[in-house]
Amino acid sequence: MAPEGKSKKRARPAKSGESRTLKRKEQQESLAKLQKAVDELDPKSADIHNFTDLPLSAATAAGLRASHFESLTDIQARAIPLALKGKDILGAAKTGSGKTLAFLVPVLECLFRQQWTEYDGLGALIISPTRELAVQIFEVLRQIGRKHVFSAGLVIGGKSLKEEAERLGRMNILVCTPGRMLQHLDQTAGFVVDNLQMLVLDEADRIMDMGFKSAVDALVEHLPKSRQTMLFSATQSKKVSDLARLSLKDPKYVSVHEAAETATPSTLQQHYIVTPLPEKLDTLFGFIKSNLKSKIIVFLSSGKQVRFVYEGFRHMQPGIPLLHLHGRQKQIARLGITESFTKAKHACLFATDVVARGVDFPAVDWVIQADCPEDADTYIHRVGRTARYQSVGKAVLFLDPSEEPGMLKRLEQKKIPIQKVHVKETKKKSVADQLQNMCFQYPELKYLGQKAFISYTRSIHLQKDKEVFQLKKLDLDGFATSMGLAGTPNIKFQKGEDVKRIKNRSRAELSSGSEDEFDDEGHKKKKDEVRTKYQKMAERVNQDVLSSHYRKIIDDGDADEDADFLSVKRVLGEDELDEAGKAGEAALEAKKIQLGKQEFIVDSHRREKLLKSKKKLLKYMDKGQKLVFDDDGNAHAIYELQDEDEFKAQGPVDELRRQFVEQEASKVKEVDLEDKQLAKEKRKEKRAKRKEREREEELERQGMRGEKGPVAQLAGGEAEEDPLALLRSLPIAGGRDDDSEEDSEDERPKKKAKKWFQDDSDDEREKAKKAKKEIVMDREPETLEDLESLAAGLLGN
Asked: Which reaction does it catalyse (predicted)?
């Protein structure tokens, strides 16, 4: 039995080894079959409509099914087959067209076919321009890659660099932002990227522009040149210099919407409003108040503007949840706000361009561009936050009259259809007064407003397209007033270049007199006037202790040269004052002073001076009696508890109680009499009003029956009443009596849905409606028949 048992124990490893060998052989066969299917794939085939039509691994296909991805979008159907064959790609498609899956599926398939493990290091690097977009890409990667064994990481900052560095060595796929990734490549020891297989740049045109140029150039130097590179964006860059920097090899340009009639989705309704800069906040607040049951994104040009508009509108409570998002916020706060807005059904998000690219917020109804975008590409990305994946969306662009011609020209060049609309006057709500009150109440809001004003003007000043952005044509004083600021903040960069050059000249040039000289404010000075270093120092503010000395040197030129450099006053103590008084001052005759209940003896100058001090005398003065005021404004002394001895000294307790009850009872009787008299007068007044109303009703009934009364005397011409009283008493056609008003509330016609803006056709309809209501009268009504015909015309019969 023992040998048999031993033989059985030896047989188990053999069987398990055989099973592993068979499993490995099956994997190799499936990989070879998958690779053969990829080699035979025709990227230009018209039969590729679903993910099942692509040669994908079982793990990727299962992840796509679990995430409910079935059919391919246009960009996915054309880009994924090329990427599976290892081609470098430049992908361009409209916003919301599914570009994320177009590069995530090839990344998973490339590493799977090469049997990538955690020991092989980093295999794919995906770079995003913003943290919000990087988080979104990482979440999609987790969904479709749930069946794979790859490790993936998110490197976007906001956490300890040391904690991230400890995990980087075990990651196969990294989703990152350029700055944080470059920091790890430069500082993290042992982080090797020599085996990198794929590099993906999402929103490539943004990453390749001047904002990230230096970071991307330094980052690419660390990466191997033998890799597959993919660039995706809604507005793709095709510069040869950019492609050379990334070492692209024969890239395939995939643009599915290049031949389309419009650069934006067809389900997107685009409008623009011409609103002067001082009316921009009024228009924005009126829009939000008119769309409380919507999900809105409002784009502003700077983070300081986002903070000011958010804080100001939040205090005014428009009736919809308000959120704000900008690049200066902490990472945890940004992620929390993004999640809150994603889950919200109705909300308004004030944001900068950090969420203008790629971020997918579900069910956004409106995109409002309160500040004009820097170019047409930025406009396309902003409006792309709505009308995603064939859904319906609306966008509104606010333009100053000086921005309208140039911006419309740029949008027309990009094939963007946009329609002009007008804001209804009834929908405008002025918020300048409310903002001004809040700026007075909250100094921090005033400070925010000043910073927001300066940041807005600086952003306009720095824009390259001067045909659109013209700072001199903007009403900056009106804009400051609309923000609730008492005055227009000073803008330093508005000073002339010649003034800046004059201020930076050397002292030799200033004293030479060869050119006109200017002071700090830019005004011309006399040529013989030379400001010395001491004069400049004396004119400054917030200086140190030496400023007064320099001022004395300049102002008091004839001062004694032997004077002390710094004069210091000596403070004497009380003992020293007494000794000084005895030694140097003549003794005063003793006299008595009564202060309150205390008596003081004054026998020296020091005591006399102390007793003249208001602070010293305060505790001896009679402070009077504290009073409180009731609701009627009558003054009463504060009720204070008496000591037991004082209370007993007033007399027996029973007698005191009896007196108190009698006093209070007399007060109650007096008040009761006043109340009864007031009630009696009210009843009398009510009775008189009722009789007057009954008399008027009786007169009206007599007039309707034709009895002798004020209306019946109309024919005689002697009536003093209004001759149109009969028409007023007649029932209106289709009308209701006042008594039956509550019973027929359900029969009232429903109000039409109010529109926040109106186009030119609405104006024409309003004019036609007014024209219909006009009634031309050849002569004034004279007889009863004339009045009846006039009433019928007014009633629309």
From this structure: ATP + H2O = ADP + phosphate + H(+)
